[in-house]
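Design job #97: recover the sequence.
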């Protein structure tokens, strides 16, 4: 396995025998057109120093400016000669003849010369499984389509595994695919062409399947009509996916599985299942820990019927050091809203640590935020919970949500140090039957934003959490909803700073704290309300209200079953009229 510091890529541009730049220089010298002007020679030497043809694009521009446009036609001819055109290896590109063998011959020829670019000119190329090899770039010219054969026999069978798989076939197998690579280094799929899965429903070969590879680039292409994961890679490091368009994917969009140093940027993803879904599959561990680490997702648009960004549900190994930013999330199909916007799920023992999510816009997503620590224990004997900690979710705007956002653990295992800031969620609302606190634990249930059904709060529900901080959270509904805005149940170390809501109805409190210890609520205000804060549960204590505007609440605090000393107040603005006595309220469930 290649071991290398992520910043050290000096060998990535080391010359291989028959390198494209050697062939290009040879062509120029044979044609007696290698320029002699000193400045031009300087540019050539810089280009010749080890950069590949594509990586040296800027140097090419300097060379042309220094040498004059007269060389352009010669240069283009040389570039074409230096690449491996699939047409020269027998590809027809007519959409009828099977071109698999021609593609593989071109790839093998490039690999035999130490690497190169396999050029795919405009045309429709019907193919089965294609195997990329080290130091080979597959470049799809504008107008080119690699079309998956409708005959499943044209694709490699599932690989034989040295272990028993406990995951589904889509997650587990990579050889059953269209464009594949296994144990390769420095590979790329580039251009403005299309890879078409050529199916009208789910189940079939993956369109792009990468396994055990290092230094992978996928840039500019379109992947469409995939019956399996559109772009899937496992156990791969230093992966760069940029400017990719995924259309009409029948399964997931992009799935980084047990991979490190991954960047997904500037992508448009339209698929039926999860749009971007990092995971750590239990069946693929092969006796080693293979975490998802150092993952960056930025500047993307996602359209899906399921989750827009989700870690899970396969979560046997860890998710560490992740940033997700600048994503616009929306439904794929009218009337089928996505299940969730942001989902972080550890249910198979994974330790989630160091995740930052920021600048996310969602429209008509059912559950904007879903953070779950459970204990399904797939592939574990015995099932053992993992952990979720050090998560920051910031600058989130969601409209048209129908399910309550939640942060939940299980008894004895709490997500820790979770911060939500600058959160603006507008719920559809409309619930006229507020419930009590009897929410099932569902410890081993499949995790998703709808798993608890209708929750007793309309905006946020948190249970079994330690170190939860919310700042500048604004929650409201479009249609009258009688539930509290937020409920915190069995939460330790809670900070609520700058909470706002302008939609309050019925007799429910704005906030409900049950068995909450060490809470600080400050700088918050609400529209007219019957009760601002309800505190219940014998374990509740050390709750401080300071500097809040409670002048429009009939009752500041309602204590039901909590010690009298549980809540302290200081510096709150209160109504000039006497407060009403607390009403008897049915909690509809557990409070002790």
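Job complete. Output follows.
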């Amino acid at each position: 396995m290649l071991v290398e510091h992520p910043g050290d890529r000096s060998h990535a541009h080391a010359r291989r025998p028959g390198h494209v730049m050697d062939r290009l220089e040879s062509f120029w010298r044979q044609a007696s057109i290698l320029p002699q002007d000193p400045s031009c020679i300087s540019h050539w030497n810089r280009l010749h120093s080890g950069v590949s043809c594509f990586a040296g694009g800027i140097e090419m521009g300097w060379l042309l400016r220094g040498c004059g446009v007269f060389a352009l036609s010669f240069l283009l001819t040389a570039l074409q000669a230096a690449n491996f055109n699939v047409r020269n290896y027998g590809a027809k590109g007519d959409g009828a003849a099977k071109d698999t063998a021609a593609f593989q011959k071109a790839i093998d020829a490039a690999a035999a010369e130490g690497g190169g670019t396999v050029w795919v000119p405009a045309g429709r190329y019907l193919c089965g499984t294609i195997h990329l090899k080290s130091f080979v770039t597959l470049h799809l010219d504008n107008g080119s389509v690699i079309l998956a054969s409708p005959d499943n026999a044209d694709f490699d069978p599932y690989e034989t595994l040295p272990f028993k798989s406990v995951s589904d076939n889509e997650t587990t197998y990579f050889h059953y695919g269209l464009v594949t690579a296994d144990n390769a280094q420095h590979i790329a799929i580039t251009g403005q062409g299309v890879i078409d899965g050529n199916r009208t429903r789910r189940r079939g070969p993956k369109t792009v399947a990468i396994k055990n590879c290092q230094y992978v680039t996928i840039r500019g292409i379109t992947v469409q009509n995939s019956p399996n994961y559109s772009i899937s890679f496992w156990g791969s490091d230093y992966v760069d996916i940029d400017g990719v368009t995924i259309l009409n994917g029948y399964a997931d969009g992009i799935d980084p599985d047990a991979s490190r140093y991954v960047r997904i940027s500037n992508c448009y993803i339209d698929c039926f299942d999860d749009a971007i879904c990092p995971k750590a599959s239990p069946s693929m561990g092969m006796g080693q820990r293979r975490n998802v680490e150092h993952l960056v997702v930025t500047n993307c648009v996602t359209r899906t019927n399921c989750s827009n960004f989700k870690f899970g549900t396969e979560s046997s190994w860890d998710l560490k050091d992740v940033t997700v930013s600048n994503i616009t999330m929306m439904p794929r199909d009218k009337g089928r809203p996505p299940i969730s916007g942001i989902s972080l799920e550890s249910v198979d023992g994974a330790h989630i640590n160091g995740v930052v999510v920021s600048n996310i816009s969602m429209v008509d997503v059912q559950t904007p935020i879903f953070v779950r620590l459970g204990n399904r224990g797939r592939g574990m004997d015995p099932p053992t919970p993992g952990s979720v900690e050090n998560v920051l979710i910031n600058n989130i705007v969601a409209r048209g949500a129908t399910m309550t956002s939640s942060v939940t653990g299980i008894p004895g295992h709490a997500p820790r140090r979770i911060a939500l800031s600058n959160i603006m969620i507008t719920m559809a609302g409309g619930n006229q039957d507020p419930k009590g606190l009897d929410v099932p634990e569902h410890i081993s249930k499949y995790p998703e934003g709808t798993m608890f059904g209708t929750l007793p709060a309309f905006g946020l529900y948190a249970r079994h959490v330690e170190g939860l901080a919310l700042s500048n959270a604004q929650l409201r509904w479009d249609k009258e909803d009688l539930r509290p805005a937020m409920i915190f149940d069995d939460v330790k170390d809670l900070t609520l700073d700058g909470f706002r809501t302008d939609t309050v109805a019925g007799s429910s409190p704005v906030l409900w704290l049950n068995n909450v210890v060490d809470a600080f609520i400050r700088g918050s205000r609400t529209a007219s309300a019957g009760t601002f804060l309800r505190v219940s549960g014998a374990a509740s204590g050390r709750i401080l209200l300071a500097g809040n505007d409670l002048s429009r609440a009939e009752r500041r605090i309602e204590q039901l079953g909590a010690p009298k000393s549980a809540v302290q107040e200081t510096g709150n603005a209160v109504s000039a009229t006497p407060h009403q006595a607390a009403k008897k309220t049915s909690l509809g469930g557990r409070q002790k």
